[in-house]
Amino acid sequence: MPAAQLANAGIPGPIPDDFDFDMHIRIPDGINQPELPFPMRVSHNVAIEDHNNESVFQTLTVKSTAGPRPENLDIGPPLKAPYCYTPEEFSELVESPELCASLAPLPSSLIRLITSARRDRKLVAEQARQTGKEKEKETTTRTKLLGTMKMTTPVQRTFGQPKSIIIPTIYLFNLKNRMPPPLHFFQSSKIDLINHSPKDVPLKYIRPFGLDNLSPQKVHVLDLEKMVVNWGNDDTSECLSPLRFLEASRNLHKALNLLSPDPTDGEPTFANEYRKHYQFFESLDDMEDTFQYWYDFEREARYDLLLGNVLYDENRYATQVGIVLQARLAATGSFS
């Protein structure tokens, strides 16, 4: 005896595995009948949504049933098309919770659309508020900024006059704590970089030189290890030209002068001793031509002075430089 025709599926049971279940859970296009009263369409759509939900549930139950399916197991009845709302009607629902309450119950799908639209509108309004707030803040900041750029302590530059150099405070901390930066760090161009971009300068904290190691007080100094990676060290004369050597030496002397107390009763100071140090080399004959030969001794003597409190000794300097230059002449065969 052939199987009975299934009313909803339209075929004899049982329903096969290749049956097009998706086609039967696809909601038909909405019915556009704005002439029907708005409350009536809302009420009908509640019933239509309940019918469609039950039908989809029944169809999906059949789909999930493993074969062979019972011959009388049928899918849900055909889905019904909902009634459409005009854009104006939907906008009224979004804007008026009171209208939604008067039409309740609403289809759950309509509630989700209204909730999403209200959330989107709220987000747009918040973005507009933030934009307006930022523009207002920018206007206020700009108003406060206008007319505030004034020249302080202006300098009249004359031809041939070197520009004024401001020694960075961080350099003073390093010198004070016996961590002198390499000499080429005192070139005017390097000092300008430090002064113009202080936030880019790597720092570290140490216990101040000469204080008890148990002291909790710490000071910030230039992190020389990191700076040397970028700017190099002063191990050889290649870090400076003779003219830059003199420029850096004068700037270093200026820094030491800021740190040194006023001399009393002939008491030596770092500033005075270093001034005699670099002026000795500045006064050498053929200073520029011989720079690369005596630079190593100059560096050694400079660090002796800054780190070891070794006083300037003109005889020692003259002897050491003489030995270096004689060795150089002998090496080139020009010494007689």
Description:
- This protein is mainly alpha-helical and 336 residues long.
- It is 54% helix and 2% strand.
- The chain is built from 12 helices and 2 strands.
- The protein has a two-stranded antiparallel ribbon.
- Helix 3 packs across helix 5, helix 6 crosses helix 9 and helix 9 packs antiparallel against helix 10.
- The chain starts with 20 loop residues before the first helix and ends with a helix.
Secondary-structure map with pairings?
Blueprint: H1 21-24, H2 38-64, H3 87-95, H4 97-103, H5 108-145, H6 169-176, H7 188-196, E1 203-206, E2 219-222, H8 224-231, H9 242-259, H10 270-282, H11 287-308, H12 314-332
Antiparallel strand pairs: 1-2
Helix pairs in contact: 3-5, 6-9, 9-10, 10-11, 11-12
Give a quick summary of the entry.
With 336 residues, the protein is mostly helical.
Measured distance between first and last alpha carbons: 134 Å
Structural class: mainly alpha
Quaternary structure state of the chains depicted? single chain
Large-scale geometry: elongated
Low-confidence stretches: none
Rounded to an integer in angstroms, the radius of gyration calculated over CA atoms is: 45 Å
For the residues shown, what is the average pLDDT?
A: 89
Task: Output the number of helix runs.
Answer: 12
> What series of H and E elements makes up the topology?
HHHHHHHEEHHHHH
Strand order in space, largest sheet? 1-2
E-strand count:
2
Strand content: under 5%
**Share of helix among residues?**
40-55%
Summarize the biggest pleated sheet: 2 strands, antiparallel
